[in-house]
Write a structure and sequence with these properties.
Immunoglobulin-like; single chain; five-stranded antiparallel beta sheet; mainly beta; nine-stranded mixed beta sheet; about 10% helix
Amino acid sequence: MRKTKSIIVLFLIILLITAASCDKKSKNTGTQEFGFIGGTEGLEISFVEGTPPERIFIEDPFLISIQLENKGETTIDLGQVLTTLEGISYRSYSIPKPTLVNEIPIERIRFDKQSNTQLLGGIENINYEAEFVDKIDFETTHTMSMNVCYLYQTRSVSSLCLVNDPTQRPGTADVCLVNEVKGVGNSGAPIQVTQLSERASGKSEISFNFQIENKGTGKVYHPTFVDKADPQCTDAGNEKFSDLVQVTIIPPEGLEVSCPKLDHGILGDVRLIKGASTVVCKLSTNQVTQSAPFPGEIKVQVDYIYKEHASTQVTVESLA
C-alpha cells in the first residue's frame, strides 16, 4: 500500500513539473495571445517535380520551375521576389534572363474567425524556358541552384509597465511590474523579436531591451537591396547589404524613446552578428502622469530581404 502511494505521489510530481514547463513555454512565446499565428517561416521554395527533368536531351526544350509558397504572415507584393538561377552556363542552357520576379502578389497565411480555421498562404510558380545547345560526346550532370530573395516584415507586440516614477516600490494592487521580462508576440516570419525586458533606470526613465534573431535557415539583407539597379539574388557584390535589417519602434502612447543603435531615435538599421543583435532603448516617463502603474503597448517592426535557395541536378544525354 505504501509503495502504491509513493508511485502515485511521484506521478503527480511529474505531472506538475510537465505542466509548469508547458506554461512557461507558452508564456515565453506569447504569440497567439497577441493576435498572431506565429512561426518562423516565410517563403517555402522548391523545384516543381519534373521541372527540370532528371535527364534532358540536346536541343530539346524543357522547363525549370520554382514553386514559392508563403508560410508566414506577410503578403509579398508584385515584383518583391527575385529568383536567380546559378550553377550553370546561361549560354549553354539558353537562359536570356537568369533573374526573374513574381508577377502576382503572394498572400500571407491568415486565420478566418468565421470558420475558425487557418487559411493557407498564396502559391506562385516562376518559370524559366531552357534548352541545352552545346554538343557533347558523353553525358554530363550539372547542379542547378535557385536563389530566392524576397521582401518581408516581422511585426512584434509587447507591453511595458508605465508609471510616473518607475523607481517606486511595487504595491500589492499593481497590475504590472516594471522590472521583469515581458512576453513578446511575433507575426510568422524568419526574423523574430525575443527576450524583451524592462527595468527602472531613473525616477522618470525606463530602460528596455530586446533581441532580434534570425530563426530561419536563410540569410538576411537590408530591404533596399531590391531597389538597386539590375538587382540579382546573389551574395557576390551585395556584402554591404548583408546581415542588415531596418527596425522601427512604435512607442506606447507616443512617449519619447531613444535607442543608440537607431541613431538615438526609433528608426534605423541594425546589423546582426552571428544571426542576432540586442537593441537597448530609454523611455522617458515625464509625460506619464499616473502614479499607479499600467501596461502600455509597444510595437517593433523589422523590415528586410530574406534569401534562401534550393538545388537540383540534371543530366544531359550525349549524342553518341
